[in-house]
């Protein structure tokens, strides 16, 4: 077999170790979508996605690439098994191909999109800041938005020579929805800032809203710290006036 180019999907780099862990936490039966996303990114980076979606088919037994395909398939199987908890890995360990393992995992643990979309939309509708700082509240919201966008993909316009720019309009609508949802969940202490943002036309992006709110939060903290120092200084002055000789007596002692 002629040497393969490093860009060939059957090429194994020296660091393509079968014992490598491609995800930070093994899949334990919960959070399949996030685990799947992490695995897809890792396999794509290694040019091995074709082994789980079936695009890299097994060559015939007399092909010069047959043995190399088997090696690559076994490496990908090892990576998948390494990303599963022991009890789940044991249920798929006897599958012959990475695609068979991947298909079974999707069938067993993949949620129906509509049910998942419903659950995420429900969480978004009840999202509120509570005791969270702006950054933590934003991160919590963004995780839900990203999960939703991964499931509920905006369709592409198929019109011949389309000039309606419908996709851009839908994206802008989604952005505005995020801003509204985020502002609804804000604590009432940000009511004035929220009112000012809603008066802007067009509405700023969610990233701009986040920037405005974090700046407001920093200014409030700075103001609170300055007020605390001022009050502490005032109390010291009052104490000195009420007990003008206290310091002198303590010094003599």
UniProtKB/TrEMBL annotation:
InterPro entries linked: Copia-like_N
Retrotransposon Copia-like N-terminal domain location: 13-60
Origin: domain of life: Eukaryota
One Pfam family here: Retrotran_gag_3
Protein name, per record: Retrotransposon Copia-like N-terminal domain-containing protein
């Amino acid at each position: 077999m002629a040497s393969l180019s490093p860009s060939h999907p059957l090429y194994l780099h020296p660091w393509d170790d079968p014992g490598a862990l491609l995800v930070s936490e093994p899949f334990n039966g919960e959070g399949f979508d996030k685990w799947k996303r992490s695995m897809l990114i890792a396999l794509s980076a290694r040019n091995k996605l074709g082994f789980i979606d079936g695009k890299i088919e097994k060559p015939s037994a007399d092909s010069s690439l047959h043995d190399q395909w088997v090696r690559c398939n076994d490496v990908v199987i090892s990576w998948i098994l390494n990303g599963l908890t022991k009890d789940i890995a044991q249920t798929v360990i006897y599958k012959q191909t990475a695609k068979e393992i991947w298909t079974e995992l999707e069938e067993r643990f993949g949620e129906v999109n509509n049910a998942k979309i419903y659950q995420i939309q429900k969480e978004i509708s009840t999202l509120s800041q509570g005791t969270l700082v702006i950054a933590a509240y934003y991160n919590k919201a963004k995780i839900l938005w990203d999960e939703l966008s991964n499931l509920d993909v905006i369709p592409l316009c198929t019109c011949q020579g389309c000039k309606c720019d419908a996709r851009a309009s839908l994206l802008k609508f989604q952005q505005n929805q995020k801003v509204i949802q985020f502002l609804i969940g804000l604590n009432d202490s940000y009511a004035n800032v929220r009112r000012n943002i809603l008066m802007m036309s067009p509405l700023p992006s969610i990233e701009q809203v986040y920037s405005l709110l974090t700046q407001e939060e920093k200014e409030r903290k700075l103001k609170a710290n300055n007020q605390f120092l001022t009050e502490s200084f005032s109390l010291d002055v009052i104490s000195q006036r009420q007990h003008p000789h206290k310091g002198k007596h303590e010094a003599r002692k």
